UniProtKB/TrEMBL annotation, chain A:
One of its GO terms (biological process) is protein maturation. This is Hydrogenase maturation factor HypB. InterPro entries: CobW/HypB/UreG_nucleotide-bd, Hyd_mat_HypB, P-loop_NTPase. Keywords: GTP-binding, Hydrolase, Metal-binding, Nickel, Nucleotide-binding, Zinc. The gene is hypB. It comes from the Bacteria. One of its GO terms (molecular function) is zinc ion binding. Pfam families: cobW (PF02492). Signal peptide: none annotated.
From TrEMBL, chain B:
The gene is hybF. Coiled coil: none annotated. GO terms for biological process: protein maturation. This is Hydrogenase maturation factor HypA. Belongs to the HypA/HybF family. The lineage of its organism: Bacteria, Bacillati, Bacillota, Negativicutes, Selenomonadales.
Amino acid sequence: MEIPVMSNILHKNDENAAELNTMLTTRGIFTVNLMGSPGCGKTSLLEQTVSLLKNELTLAVIEGDLYTSKDADRIAGAGTPVVQINTGGGCHLDAFMVKAALTKLDLAAVDILIIENVGNLVCPAEFNVGEHAKVVVFSVTEGEDKPLKYPLVFRQSEAIILNKTDLLPYTSFNMDAAIDDIKGLNPQASLLQTSCRTGDGLPAWIEWLKAGAARTRRQANMIQGVKCD
Amino acid sequence: MHELAIAQGILELALNTATSHGAGKITGIRVLTGELTGIVPESLEFGFAALAEGTMAAGACLSVRIVPLTGRCRDCGDERRVDKYRFICAACGSYAIEIVSGRELKVESVEVE
């Protein structure tokens, strides 16, 4: 006997992610799912973000990593609350892991939560973790072919960060081809070119984050019935 | 290797479906995966077979159908296959393409005895 089902395989994760998203919106915490391959510069970007934002907004970070706490140690060193999730070999974070990690953070004063996903351009794109926006980082040393080789993560992201631009003179990275592929895949995304070594392009990233935080704060105020300007 | 997490979701859905119908054995499962999900059917089948061992879905045949990526233009309504991941309307040049199919990750049906 054949039983029709037609159910979404990831529905449990999606339900949990939606619940987290509502909770984070109500609290006015702009939440970013930061994705990218190993070594693209996600943690360096986070260190810079902490240092550039710390006088204006309060950040918290959830660090996804297979086994180590190396990234979390770096972020803690930069002076921001951080919770480590070790996936023990798992290639992505899911909403259940993030939900458990959130209980270890004092969310009362947090304006922006950044969830650094496991370094991987494939799996993290498929699993919502309660975020308001997905962001993908890729670097000029990885080559311009990455967007078309990993289309989902680039299609799903609201901001695409092209990092390590200071290394452009030492690579054969084809910037025109990269931009053309990204525009074709995701014309609405903000494309930001950054160098965490020189600081180039980081102000635009900080402005992007602040705009997201302001948007989420307005939504929270509306939910709470507070009159906003 | 997110296929293992997907395989786990498929197995749970199949076991729940079979149990709620009072079935004792699952012989086949039809799965739909969109082109944009990047699922490798062989990896999914391998992961599923490993997870299903010792359950009533052990040895069940997993049939995976890949749904092509199609989009609809929000400006002119043109609907067609998205070629080479270029979300630009071939009819009017608009960039406002919404995905119609190609993101599916669904269990279509479960065959039980």
